[in-house]
Amino acid sequence: MPTEDIIAEAKQRMKRAAEKLEHEFTTIRTGRASATILDRLKVSCYGSEMPINQLATVSIPEARLIVITPWDKGSLRAIEKAILTSDLNLTPASDGNVVRLEIPALTEERRKELARLVSQKAEDGRVAVRNVRRDANAHIEKLEKSSDVSEDDVEHAKKEVQDATNAMIKEIDRAAEKKTAEVMEV
User: Fold this and answer.
1) Quick one: which of 22, 46, 27 has its CA closest to 125?
2) Given 3-state DSSP classes, what are the helix, strand and coil percentages for the chain, each rounded to the nearest 5?
3) Per-residue pLDDT tens over the stretch 113-168
4) pTM of this structure
5) 20 to 30 Å CA-CA from 77: which of 7, 64, 173, 181?
6) Is residue 135 within 8 Å of 14, Cβ to Cβ?
């Protein structure tokens, strides 16, 4: 495998790690309503575990309100139960047709806790990117040992992998700062 392929694959894997982190950030609750906070919830319905978005329509009619309208009214209780047993700290209100989730304003303590969670997830993302760098450098060194590439090509490839790593870590840091600011917003 030539160094260009190794570099391209490393960049792609780094990008996927950053995208995964971005998605994880969307599941962290802020003071505003967001349908993505329900993405990781699974509802026990029809004999299996299903995501809420496969059982109902999720809408945001107001800044602090999520409305879940199940397609089958029989799944309403299961959706309520999944929300109550989750770590969202939200209490669903049902009128028999829809489930309403009122998003309360976050306390200062909870905002700080969520900011720490953002920092932890960002560090996990940086570690994932560094692991990709380590793997790419190991492939490049393997090529060097087998005398398939010159020393100059190896150094150039390692520098390019490091540059990609630095760029991705900066992107992760920017996303973490943005999410932390969003969480800390009163």
Assistant:
1) 22
2) 60, 15, 25
3) 889 999 999 999 999 999 999 999 999 888 888 877 888 888 999 999 999 999 99
4) 0.72
5) 64
6) no
Using a pLDDT cut of 70, give the percent of the chain over it: 98
Q: 114 in helix, strand or coil?
A: helix
Q: How many CB atoms lie within 10 A of CB 145?
A: 9
Question: Which one-letter amino acid corresponds to residue 74?
Answer: G
Would residue 94 be called left, alpha or beta, if left means φ above 0 and alpha means ψ between -120 and 50 degrees?
A: beta
Closest by CA to 52, choosing from 61, 44, 64, 63, is 44
Q: 46 — phi, psi (to 5°)? A: 60, 30
Q: Which residues contact 60 (CB under 8 A, 6 or more apart)?
A: 33, 34, 35, 66, 67
Q: Which helix (H) or strand (E) holds 177?
A: helix 151-184
Residue 71 CB burial class (10 angstroms; 0-12, 13-18, ≥19): exposed
